[in-house]
């Protein structure tokens, strides 16, 4: 009997653990945006430029801090949104700001580039509904 109870408890744990990996809820009116640069902005090549992030109706919390209606920023560079039901990748096109940063310095090669923000939860999973900004195009000259 004891083994059956332990097996049932383990099954329930795994059921809730998998369910806990689902996209966390976000306020329907949450809004994230890039405050600077603006769409169509031209920035100077060869030196870093400031990118600052804005967020309304939701809070910023670092990775591994699970608190309702919070998340942290991910800056997408020259890429489309990743799958919105999976962990956001971490690479040169998907920058994580897991310490709760709301701005960064960025240096890009000359040419046209796209920038977009995507909020992720304490485990880098996008919220439901997903909270992402408009995709901006900038030119580095």
Task: List the topology elements.
Blueprint: H1 2-20, E1 31-36, E2 42-43, E3 49-56, E4 59-60, E5 70-77, E6 94-96, E7 103-106, E8 111-120, E9 136-140
Parallel strand pairs: 2-9, 4-5
Antiparallel strand pairs: 1-3, 3-7, 5-6, 5-8, 8-9
InterPro entries: DUF4399
Pfam family, one: DUF4399
Signal peptide: 1-21
What does this entry look like structurally?
- Residues 1-21 form the signal peptide.
- Keywords: Signal.
- Residues 51-141 form the DUF4399 domain.
- This is DUF4399 domain-containing protein.
- By secondary structure, the protein is mainly β.
- It has a single domain (2-140), classed as Sandwich (Immunoglobulin-like), CATH 2.60.40.10.
- The chain is built from one helix and nine strands, in the order αβββββββββ.
- The protein has one helix at residues 2-20, and strands at 31-36, 42-43, 49-56, 59-60, 70-77, 94-96, 103-106, 111-120, 136-140.
- Strands 2, 4, 5, 6, 8 and 9 form a six-stranded mixed β-sheet that branches. Strands 1-3-7 form a three-stranded antiparallel β-sheet, with no helix packed on it.
- Residues 1-20 have low confidence and may be disordered.
List keywords for this structure.
141 residues, Immunoglobulin-like, 6-stranded mixed beta sheet, 3-stranded antiparallel beta sheet, 1 helix, disordered N terminus, signal, DUF4399
Please give the share of residues in helix: 10-25%
Low-confidence stretches: 1-20
Tally of individual helices = 1
Q: For this structure, what is the CATH class?
A: Mainly Beta
Kindly name the structural category.
mainly beta
Mean pLDDT: 88
Termini Cα gap: 72 Å
Query: Architecture, according to CATH?
Result: Sandwich
What percent of residues are in strands?
Answer: 25-35%
